[in-house]
Structure formats: structure tokens, C-alpha cells
Amino acid sequence: MNRRSVPAWVLAASLALNAGIVVAVALHQWQPPPKAQATQPSPVNLPDYLELSAEQRQRWQQLEPDFLRDVTANWAEIRRHREALVRHIFANEPQRAAIDAEQARIAALQDAQQQRVIAQLLAERALLDDGQRARLMALLLSRYAQESSEEELLHRD
């Protein structure tokens, strides 16, 4: 890797990790949780956890569908480009230009994903009271502290 691509790769990995954690928290109420492993945090029903009022729940439910649809589509595209990136890296004769192009596309998709997550969190923040905001922030920060990327998990001893 050349010196210019290292910061971009680190930024992309950081954005992916942050976006992934926030999306996982948001998606839990729309998908049945996977069988919990000992290292995974237990699923949380956010509307219940935040003790949303009936009006807040209604507004919360209006925010979710478009966000979840966009996030799901974006992650599918990111996965497709990650697969292409890995195939380029492990090709018989890796082409650096193709690798760099896939990495740049992944970084752009992750940036767009991070912007979606930020917009969603700001919208959710606007409907919460101070106590609910504090609970959501604490939950997100605790999840960030516990999570590992797939790459980290694959390379642990």
C-alpha cells in the first residue's frame, strides 16, 4: 500500500465499523435477532429501552422504513464491492488500479452510509427528551466499545 492509500483505508475501515454498529442497533427491531454468541451484546428493543411515549413511537416508526431500506441497499452494494476487492487482491496477477478503484468505491459508499446514519440519529434525537437522548448515547457508546470488525475477528490468535 502506498502512503496516500493508508489514511483512506483507515478512514474507510473506521466509517464501516461506526456505521455498522449504529445500523445494527437500528435494525434489531426489524429483524429477528441472530442466535446470541457469548461475545455479542444482547438485542435491545430501542422504543422500549428508551421508554418512548405513544406519540414518539409513532414518529419513530415513520422514520425507520426509508432509513432501513436505504441502509440495506447500501450494505448490499458495499458487500458486492468488497467481494470484488478481495477477488482483485487474490487474482493471479493483481492489478493495482482495479484494487484502488474498488477501495475508492467502498470508501464512497461507506461515507454515504455514515451520512445516512448521522441524519437518522439526528432525526431520532429530535424526537427524544434529554433522558432518552442520554440513554441512547450511552447505549451506542457501549456498543462501539464492545464491537470488533470481521477482519479483527479473523486475525485474532
How would you describe the overall organization of this protein?
The structure is a single chain. This protein has helices at 5-27, 46-49, 54-89, 96-127, 130-146, 150-154. Mean pLDDT is 80; it is low at 29-38. Helix content is 75%, strand content 0%. Helix 1 packs across helix 4. By secondary structure, the protein is mainly alpha-helical.
Largest sheet descriptor: none
Beta percentage is under 5%
What shape does the CA trace take?
elongated
Secondary-structure element sequence?
HHHHHH
Quick one: how many beta strands? 0
Mean pLDDT: 80
Name some characteristics of this structure.
single chain, 157 residues, mainly alpha, 75% helix, elongated
Furnish the topology, listing elements before pairings.
Layout (H helix, E strand, L loop, with lengths): L4 H23 L18 H4 L4 H36 L6 H32 L2 H17 L3 H5 L3
Describe the structure concisely:
α1 packs across α4 and α3 runs antiparallel to α4. The protein is mainly alpha-helical and 157 residues long.
